[in-house]
Structures are given as structure tokens and as C-alpha cells.
Amino acid sequence: MASIKSSTNSFPPEVLPRFIVFEGLDGAGTTTQSRRLADRIRSAGHAAVLTAEPTPGPIGQHIRAVLSGKERATDVTMAYLFAADRSEHLDDPEHGIRAELARSRYVVCDRYLFSSLAYQGSLCGFELVQMLNAPFALPEHLVFLDLPSETGLERIKSRSLSEIYETAGFQDTVYHAYRQALQQYADCNMQIHRVDGSRDPETIAEEIWSRLAITPIL
Ligand code: TYD
């Protein structure tokens, strides 16, 4: 894997304070934990926006149609679509992540560019995906919910396995790609929290809360 430092002019990328991202394999619990964290931040007296990628916007909807098999797109096209969806998500002047942060809110996001590095990087080459995502700012905190791919797949068995990425072999590849991608960011100002995602949701939420050390407003 090429070093990220060689292909971007502005490494390390900008880090956005109060922006928190959850990442992990399918079934790792990113949706559950991002919801819990946003609620907890609000209970501590701060404003928090909960958001996710793919977004509900037009590009995100098209991505979901491909993920479910209703539409088709090449792996490279998907890398472009995720990056385009992210660009809108970050910079929409009204509801974008930057706009929400500028209102002094916390933004908690279920998946971000590290999903692209891990999933699309595994499918169409890390360098292309890294290049497409190089312009995007990083979160202050990245929470990686770490669990073996078999455990993730076991958890999502009860849901329909319609999504094109939810196969055992592919999830295993993505797991290794995540670990490599996170290593590339070890020297940034972004704080990376690798959390054991195989435990019960309450225990995981407590660990995340204590790691982020967000001061409550009294
Ligand atoms: P997710 O919303 O976590 O799944 P669901 O809500 O259906 O449980 O993510 C949808 C899928 O999209 C998931 O398999 C990860 C994948 N994905 C990428 O491949 N690249 C990306 O950049 C993002 C944000 C998600």
C-alpha cells in the first residue's frame, strides 16, 4: 500500500473539532453506538447532530440502490459516488457537517472516508480511493469498532443479506484494509480510538464516553 503522505500535498489533512466518526465492519454496531453517543452528548448539555453516510441525499440514495442490487455501477464508479456524496455532506452550506460545526454543535457521523478506504480500497485499489478522499477534512475523533468479521456477519444474519458487500470473504478483506488504512493516519492530529466491539452495547458506550472526555455543561 502506498503511503498517503506521497499522494497528497496537504498531509496531515485539516482536523475538525467536535466532529466524531464511527467506523467498522457491517454488523460492528456503528449505527447503535453513534446514536447512543449523540444522545449522551445532548444529555451532557451540548447540541449534537447525528448523521450518516451514505447520506439520504440524491447521491446517497443512488448508492443505496446499487448496494441493494436494484441498480448497477462499477466498483470505480462507486468510489466516485461515495466521494461525491461525502463532498455534499461536508460542504452543503445549509446542512453540511462544516455548517453544523460552525453552529458550535457536535457532529456524530456513522461512517466516513475510512469506509471508502477500506471497502472501495479493497475493490478498486487504495491509491485511487485515497486520491478521491484526500481533499476531505478529518474528524477530531475516529472510533473504530473492532470485531472479527464472522461476529459482524453473525449479527446481521437476521437482517436481509441483500447488500452487495455483506459476504464472509469480502468482510475479511475489508477488516484488514481498515487496519492498514488506520495505520496511515497514526501520525495525524485526529484521535483514533480502537474499541473492542464484540462486547455488549452498554459497556462499549461507556468506554467510548470515557475516552472522548466531553465535559458536561452544568
Ligand atoms: P451502513 O449504512 O452502515 O449499512 P446499513 O445501514 O445498511 O446497515 O453502510 C452501508 C454500506 O456502505 C456498508 O456495507 C459500508 C458501505 N460503505 C462503503 O462501501 N463505502 C463508504 O464510503 C461508505 C460510507 C459506506
Summarize the model shown.
This protein has helices at 30-43, 58-67, 75-91, 97-102, 113-124, 126-133, 149-155, 168-184, 201-212; strands at 15-24, 48-52, 106-110, 138-146, 191-196.
What does this structure look like?
The chain is an alpha/beta fold and 218 residues long. The protein has a single domain, classed as P-loop containing nucleotide triphosphate hydrolases (Rossmann fold, 3-Layer(aba) Sandwich). The chain is 47% helix and 16% strand. The chain is built from 9 helices and 5 strands; from the N terminus they run E-H-E-H-H-H-E-H-H-E-H-H-E-H. It has a 5-stranded parallel beta sheet. Helix 2 runs antiparallel to helix 3, helix 3 packs antiparallel against helix 5 and helix 5 runs antiparallel to helix 6. The protein is globular, with a radius of gyration of 17 Å. The N terminus is likely disordered. Bound molecules: thymidine-5'-diphosphate. Thymidine-5'-diphosphate binds next to helix 1 and helix 5.
Give structural attributes.
binds thymidine-5'-diphosphate, disordered N terminus, Rossmann fold, alpha/beta, 9 helices, 218 residues, 5-stranded parallel sheet, 5 strands
